[in-house]
Amino acid sequence: MESCRARRRRVPLLYVTLASVAVVGGTATGTVYVKEQPRSAPVARSAVPSSATPSGVTASGEASVEQAARPTVDRDELLADAMQSVDVAKGAEVSVAVLDLESGESATYGDGSFDTASIVKVDILAALLLRAQDEGRSLTSAEKAYATAMIERSDNVSASALWETIGRAEGLAAANERFGLSATVGGDGMLWGLTQTTAADQLALLRQVFDDESELSEASRSYLRGLMGRIAVDQRWGVSAVADGSRWALKNGWLPRSTTGLWDVNSIGRVTVDGRECLVAVLSDGNATKAAGVALVEAAARAAVSVFAAD
Length: 311
Fold this sequence. Notes:
Blueprint: E1 21-26, E2 32-36, H1 75-83, E3 93-100, E4 106-109, E5 114-115, H2 120-134, H3 141-152, H4 156-166, H5 168-179, E6 196-197, H6 199-210, H7 218-228, E7 248-256, E8 263-273, E9 276-285, H8 290-306
Antiparallel strand pairs: 1-2, 3-4, 3-9, 5-6, 7-8, 8-9
Helix pairs in contact: 2-4, 2-5, 3-4, 4-5
């Protein structure tokens, strides 16, 4: 293992029984056209009692017309379209999720479960920080040393030590229940790298680290973000490839599977692209080589952030 709808708001039709005007049609932008009715057209008195004003009509007899709202954007559909340009080799699979921190809008492509490899180290540290908060204490000097090595250099020995500290898979599950991760299952025994997760769950985890609404305190979030912003130079690939310069924080994971010889390659983090801050999680497996997996992950990350580029 490595060392890591358009949903158009429906405009209510205004059925107004008036002698002078009748709604006959509307444009897609909500503009309504009216035409004059022949004055000889009879009006049934029973349709509009003299003592009542019809809904949508003012006391003076003028019809009020609600303008159609701008259609909302189906981000999932945009992401699916963008992913059509990503070259996925035969036998490989990829899933990606993205969140625009300013608008709160998100998109997800694929819902499969993947091995975490070393991206689980972010989850391990988040669980440790949550436990320390519950106990009303700071991390010990030893825990801080392990945390630094685990995140910045993706050190596996340090990850194993903290995996034990949090209570292995059971401890991870307890923390993840509070974090809102519903599809992540810790690896058996000490096999933390074989934890199973989804892109959507990894996006939920990133929100715990980078969003204000979190189970983690500001101090805990700041500490974890700091480590993710100081990744070793040779591990600065993946989602960071789409960021503006050094405006990123990430954790990567890569693992050759002994049973197949194929590679799991994953990347999660925050990136700033054209001034827009996004959280991105990309998971892949079945890659022939690590390099092929890195290329796939970076292409998927570019597709993910592109769904907000036109805003």
